[in-house]
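hey so i finally got around to running the thing on that chain from the lab meeting. sorry it took forever, my laptop kept dying and i had to restart like 3 times. anyway pasting the input first so we r on the same page abt which one it is
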Amino acid sequence: GIAISPATPSTVITDEIAEAADMLLVMTVQPGQGGQKFRPECVPKVAELRARFPNKDIEVDGGVSPDTIGPCAEAGSNVIVAGTAVFRAQDPEGVIAGFKQTVNEAQAKLAATMSTEPRHQFYESDDKVTLSVMLKDCKPEEVKISFTNKSVDFQYENYQLHLEPLKAQIDPAESGYRVGKVKVEIWLKKRAAARWGGLVSDGSDAPLLPPSAAPPPSADEVPVHRRHKNWEGAADAELSKEKEKTLSDDPNAGGDAALNSFFQQIYSGGDEDQRRAMMKSFVESGGTALSTNWDEVGKGRVEVAGEDNKKIAAKAEAAKKKKRGGA
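ok and heres what got predicted. didnt touch it at all, straight out
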């Protein structure tokens, strides 16, 4: 909240400041010391703030007693702070109860005199009018709406909307409302299908418009729906005919990860000689050959397969010898 001292005018509280605060406090004594005398010249600041901010909590603090609570409450204060008047009273609970009653009665009077018509808009169909009252975060239990054949009444806090007489009769039993986050939506069920063109009758309205009815299309206007070939579906069907290659069909299917998996499958399913042959052939050939025939692999060194691979291997071997010679 935000507080102003007795010497500070209420106009320093701008709309932006008030919007950011939950409560506005008007000090009616100089802050810092209890038991001071109430300053009645501060009361008009309460009234000024209440006129600008009808939905804010406005608090009064300082010298408030059963003798001074009345002007504070009538000016618009709905939160009262009292110290000496309560703690030095013979009946503290009675003093507090009196404060509450005075404030509640004053708030009821203010609500009746300061009611504000909320922003609203409507749209209609042949059989229903939908009225949107643009208020945010309304508490559903505090929203009051009533219907008659020719009127609708809306009330929430200090907001009131009374529409009477309506353009035409409605069915109260079929009308209703719902409370949303940003608005209250009210629907009015029309007793007779028609277009109103407005909400409230001024007694000199033109006859209601007949229900809207689109004329049936002529033969020339009837749309012709040609069948279009589903190219996407045809492509999917054609692709599905191609059998996806598996590792058993092609060891290279799926890239390096699939090849590694293929190697592991063979290795795990082989006997001791087959595993020895696989490791020896793979290592000695620089990964260019793989054999499970130990009788063949065990005879000597496995050469690098492929001309390009042989050249690469020769360069690598020469580099190793040069490095060893330099060391």
